[in-house]
Each structure stands twice: as structure tokens, then as C-alpha cells.
Amino acid sequence: MKKYNLKSSEKPFEAITPPSECYIELDDLLSSRPMNNLQGFLVVKNVFSPDIINSLRSEYFSRFKEDYEYDGSEWTHVKRSKLSHGVGIHPANAFVRSKSFCDFIESKVLKKLAALLLNSDKAVLCPRAITRSFSHLSSVRTLAHRDRDYFRTTDNSKALTAWIPLGPTDIHYGQLVYLKDSQQNISKISQLAKDKKTITSDLQGLADHFKTTWYIPTLSKGDVVFHCLNNVHASFDTHNIVPRLSCDLRFASSSEYLDPRWSNYWRGNDGL
Fold first, then answer.
1. Is 92 part of a structural domain of the chain?
2. CATH number at residue 210
């Protein structure tokens, strides 16, 4: 068990590698079963080719004329943007509306995987697809939270999240971490969270409270992480000059379980 810091100003927390049941190859899942492991998240390996991820990554960062540079192998963040992430002219808002990104998130393989994991005949994608990029110039980590507190549905088991890294992701690039056994502590976590969307910034304190620890999954370019809406997760700060880029999707087994607030394209200031 190792100790990690989300950011240098906070006390470290302990984390371990997830068990093998939290990983599966794409071909194995396509002929397999719904997400029935007790941890409530599943890393599906090699869903997309690295070339597809690289192409999307380049399209995103090339929209920023002065903020990012390409050195022949990777994009680097060289100048802090003057634009607020939520303003209409921000390049991220155009990117999520682009044909290439929409084709990517609407891909048949994502819908097939989501349907399998929801144990459903089909999966419906919410139009609100989030993209975020962080680097040493914008190293904002995500505090411990559950997606159910941002996505209103009548049945949390009928919807799930797909988180896709569009480039490098590890502890230096805003890596995700998951609270072990949070699926078994849903009611207790709800009492702890009350009406707050963010549960806490003290990851070790939360783990100690439930006598558990955190998982840090190993992710590669082209992998997709699916997790339940009740799952507690967080992320590291990004301290690298090479930015982390990711997209965050919601699928439901039918339109009946969609949050109507997620029926429009994402904007950084849409309040959700």
C-alpha cells in the first residue's frame, strides 16, 4: 500500500491497485456479462486505437491558437488561457459539438458496452458530454464525489458513467481514484454527503471513516472506465506540462432514466 497526495498542500492518502476483476479486455466483455464486480467500476482495455485518441487530442488542442504547442510527439501547455472555461467562445464548447467528437462518443462499441453493463438491450447516450483539460497551469483536481449527485434519475442502477482519457493518465496526469467498497456503503455515504455534491477533500479521512482504502486503476491510451453512479471517486491534480484531456459521458438503459438537464450540449458554466 502506497501513500499519495492529491496536491502538495494536502495530507497523503493510502491507495492500492484494484483486483483483476476490475479489468477486462474488450473482446472478453463483448461476449461476457454485466458489471457485477463489487467495486462498481470496470476498466475496459483497448476499446479504441491510440490513433483515434491521438487524432481527437490533436483536434482539441489545435483549437487553442496560442495556449498549447505541439512538439512533434505531444501537446504542451505553454500559456494560461485568458478565456473562462464556460464562455460560449471557449474552444472546448466548439469541440464537443464537432462531428469527429460526436461520432466518437456515438460509436456503436460504446453503446454496446454500456448496454451490456446496464444489462439492457440498448443504451441511450446523454447529449451533454463533458470534456476537460488540466495541466501544471490549471491543476484543478476533482474532490471525492458521486455522479448520482450531478445526474438525477429515478433509478441509479439504470444509468452509468463512461470516463475516457484522451491521452496520458496516471498520478501525474489527474488520475482517477475509487473508494474501495463504496458500493457497500451507499446509505452511509448518503448520510455523510447530505445535500452536498462534493463529499470531502480529505480522502484518507473518508477511507478511515469507512475502514477501507482507495483504488488507483492502471489506464492506457484507448481504455474506457465505466462506473456506477453510486461509486465514490476523485482525481489527482495535474502537475505536468503535458495536459490531461478526458471526456465524461452518461448512458441510461432508456430515455425514461435520463436527466433532462443533460439533454443539451455541455458548457463549462451550465451549472451542473
1. no
2. 2.60.120.620
> What's the angle, vertex CA 246, arms to CA 118 and CA 182, rounded to 5?
50
Three-state secondary-structure class, residue 17 = coil
Sort strands 214-215 and 13-16 into parallel, antiparallel or unpaired. parallel
Q: Where are the alpha helices (DSSP H) in 147-234?
A: 186-193, 203-209
Name which of 90, 127, 124 is nearest 110 in CA terms.
Answer: 124
User: Residue 206 in contact with residue 200, Cβ under 8 Å?
Assistant: yes
pTM of the prediction?
Answer: 0.90
Evaluate whether 39 touches 181 at the Cβ level (below 8 Å).
yes
Q: Is there a domain that residue 42 lies in? A: yes
Q: Which residues of 79-109 are buried (b: 16+ CB within 10 A; e: fewer)?
A: eebeeebeeeebbbbebbeeeebeebbeeee
Please report whether residue 19 resides in a domain. yes
Cβ count near 248 (within 10 Å): 16
CB 124 within 8 A of CB 252: yes
Q: Residue 45 belongs to what domain range?
A: 2-50+107-262
Residues 29 and 64: their CA atoms lie apart, in Å, by 37
Q: What does the pLDDT read at residue 7?
A: 54
C-alpha distance across the termini of the chain, in Å: 35
Q: How confident is the model at residue 29 (pLDDT cuts 50, 70, 90)?
A: confident
Q: What is the pLDDT of residues 120-175, one digit of tens each?
A: 999 999 999 988 888 877 656 678 888 988 888 888 889 999 999 999 888 777 78
Assigned domain for 267 exists: no
Tally of structural domains, the chain: 1
Which of the four pLDDT bands, split at 50, 70 and 90, describes residue 55?
very high
